[in-house]
Specification:
The chain is α/β, with parallel strands linked by helices. The protein has 17 helices and 29 strands. Strands 5-4-3-2-1-11-10-7-6 form a 9-stranded parallel sheet, with helices on one face. Helix 5 runs parallel beside helix 8 (212-240). The longest helix has 29 residues, at 212-240. The protein starts with a strand and ends with a strand. The structure holds alpha-D-galactopyranose (GLA) and zinc ion. Residues 89, 106, 108-109, 150, 152, 154-155 line the site of zinc ion.
Length: 648
């Protein structure tokens, strides 16, 4: 099992490397990830290559039995490259992204692609026979620092080509996009523009806007561009090496389609920072991010950067209290991690991340965090056979669609509405009931319940797949704004919820984008704040009705029997407690009994054991007993503050 640290030997005097490697071994670390920001050291001037510093570092680590995951350095281009080739991104206003931080470059810039090919080839060739390397990481966090979409001329031309390949003729494109609207028809692919402004960016309604088809296609294209750029690097590495290749993704981040990005990778890894300068995450939000990353390839993953201390760039997030780092590690494992690499070994003395605390403080002295992580590593080693290759017994799936994320961002429906928050509300409700829930897409037959919240852009094909899941006995939960758009992001000329109407057994007569509260009552009672679909049931039964407004008494939530299965339609948003009632109702109807546990406790079921995680700082008692695998003792049901149990 990979248990490691992110390491930057180039940031320390070489005389310290040996002692650092020794301390790593003492901490129980068996792997480092390194190299990913060292382009300038590898190629000080154009075509002058020197990998010797990394050779020496790898040797020293090897002496301590520590293996290496090598990162390609293309996230941080050197100044000579930018000076000579430009290569940097342009923002919506045509401004250059000046060199001086990282992630400045454009995935469609031919010279960036070319120089990336060269440095990656040289690196792959040089390290091909080094037996101490166990895997490759491509680049670093594609899309980070708002770097997915670029508005340069190279991107515009590449986009036109991408469109030509898809639509063949400009007439097809004009028809599909409805460019007749406002006389926006293109005469040729050469005329294609980039959607510099979102439909209603900034304050609602006060800005310029573009065709929503253009906007959605551009987001698809920009995501594809990085997938293609990554594939270019993977292909080069595979020419020299049989080692597995990964990239460090970013959990909930959605500008790049994680399914597409992972498709070409041997395994997924990701960077997990639950609490930092930008806020503290609810534990369910972190669990969902892990599931999102497991779902990207529907396979276990590793955490490539796991938070190791207080974290921030200029101000700091809070200090993880005793037990928190250990709990985060087990949370990752409980949601599919098979390896953990901590960011970073020793805290930087210089550079932007002086306050992003690693396993060791600035002075390099082992303290509480070091010892807690060390203990975690020792425990995980003992559990290794239980962890590697294990899979949760999933009951439910939340379908996450990147296209829908983009479409919802282009047309945001209602003030305060967010697709990602909507998905999270459903995940949280299920997680709080300890209904083991995956976040992915496809392969519906693995689950009893599928949530397809706000599945706005949908194809006929997707409808027929989810239809057979339901007919074969599955439960499907749909919510407002589902099914209304085709894959060009045009509205369908049929009643809402469009292609889902027949499955749901309803028609939406009218809707109300709320700017006040409304209430629903019935089997589920609660409050809506964003949206109310006014539902006319056709074959569906009513679960709840609205309490107020001109549609008082009209259906708000319905259920329809289809074949052996059921389709729920939830026409409004709900407060979290009503959401939980709804998730419980759906589960019970599908024969799944929620696991009763105290608040802030997560219970995950696996074939051979159950994992219990206590996210609170109190001791709690859970109604599960058995043999505890970490301690190898009988488990009496008591979880310490931030405690964990693997119960057989
Ligand atoms: C990201 C990056 C790292 C580092 C950390 C901490 O996850 O991949 O290089 O910048 O954040 O800020
Ligand atoms: Zn560009």
């Amino acid at each position: 099992m990979i248990f490691g640290v992110d390491y930057y030997p180039e940031q320390w005097d070489e005389s310290e490397w040996k002692e650092q490697a020794r301390l790593m071994r003492e901490g129980g670390f068996n792997t480092v990830r390194m190299g990913e920001f060292a382009w300038k050291l590898f190629e000080n001037n154009e075509n002058e290559f020197d990998f010797s510093f990394l050779d020496r570092a790898i040797d020293i680590l090897a002496d301590e039995g520590i293996k290496v995951i090598l990162g390609t350095p293309t996230a941080a281009p050197p100044k000579w490259f930018v000076d000579k080739y430009d290569g940097v991104m342009r923002d919506k206003y045509g401004r250059k992204r000046n060199w001086g931080s990282r992630r400045e470059c454009c995935s469609n810039h031919p010279d960036y692609i070319e120089r990336s090919k060269i440095i990656v080839s040289k690196m792959a060739e040089h390290f091909a026979n080094n037996k101490n390397i166990i895997a490759w990481q491509i680049d670093n966090e594609f899309g980070c620092h708002n770097s997915t979409r670029c508005y340069c001329e190279h991107c515009r031309k590449a986009f036109a080509k991408w469109l030509k390949n898809k639509y063949k003729t400009i007439e097809n494109l004009n028809r599909a996009w409805g460019t007749v609207f406002w006389s926006l028809s293109f005469d040729s692919f050469d005329d294609i523009i980039l959607p510099e402004y979102n439909s209603c960016e900034g304050d609602y309604g006060n800005t310029w806007s573009h065709n929503p088809s253009l906007d959605l296609e551009y987001r698809r294209f920009a995501s594809d561009s990085w997938v293609k750029y990554q594939k270019m690097q993977i292909d080069i590495i595979k020419k020299y090496s049989d080692l597995p290749v990964t990239h460090n993704l970013m959990g909930h981040f959605s500008d790049i389609d994680a399914y597409d990005l992972s498709k070409d990778l041997d395994f997924v890894s990701w960077d997990n920072y639950p609490d930092n300068q930008w806020g503290a995450s609810e534990y369910e939000y972190v669990s969902m991010a892990h599931e999102n990353m497991r779902g990207a390839k529907n396979k276990n993953f590793i955490v490539m950067e796991q938070q190791a201390g207080p974290a921030g760039w200029d101000i700091l997030g809070y200090t993880p209290p005793p037990g928190q780092l250990r709990l985060w590690a087990y949370q990752a494992v409980a949601h599919g991690a098979e390896g953990l690499v901590y960011f970073r070994f020793r805290t930087a003395l210089f550079g932007m991340e002086q306050y992003w605390y690693g396993v060791l403080d600035h002075d390099g002295k082992p303290r509480r965090r070091f010892f807690e992580i060390k203990q975690t590593g020792e425990e995980l080693k003992r559990l290794e056979n239980y962890i590697t290759g294990s899979k949760n017994l999933y009951d439910a799936l939340i379908v996450k669609s990147y296209e829908n994320d983009w479409a919802h961002d282009i047309k945001r429906h209602a003030r305060g509405y967010s697709y990602r928050d909507h998905l999270y509300a459903y995940y949280k409700a299920n997680d709080d009931l300890n209904i083991t829930t995956a976040v992915s897409r496809g392969d519906y037959s693995d689950y009893k319940i599928v949530y397809m919240p706000a599945y706005n852009v949908v194809s006929e094909n997707e409808i027929s797949e989810i239809g057979s899941f339901v007919r074969n006995g599955g439960s499907l939960v749909l919510t407002f704004r589902s099914g209304t758009r085709d894959t060009y992001n045009n509205v369908r000329p049929i009643p809402v919820p469009g292609l889902f109407s027949e499955l749901a057994g309803i028609e939406v007569e009218e809707f109300d984008a709320l700017r006040r509260e409304n209430h629903v009552s019935g089997k589920i009672s609660g409050t809506a704040q964003l949206w109310c679909d006014i539902i006319e049931p056709k074959t569906a039964d009513v679960i709840s009705v609205y309490d107020g407004e001109f549609y008082k008494g009209k259906a708000a939530i319905t259920v329809n029997s289809v074949g052996k299965g059921k389709v729920y339609y939830v026409g409004c948003d709900l407060d979290q407690s009503a959401m939980k009632d709804l998730a419980a109702l759906v589960a019970r109807n599908a024969g799944i009994e929620p696991v009763n546990a105290p608040e802030n406790v997560e219970i995950i079921r696996r074939e051979k054991y159950t994992i219990a995680l206590n996210y609170s700082d109190n001791s709690v008692t859970i109604p599960i007993k058995g043999h505890e695998l970490i301690t190898d003792h009988e488990f009496n049901g008591i979880l310490e503050p931030y405690g964990v149990a693997f119960i057989k």
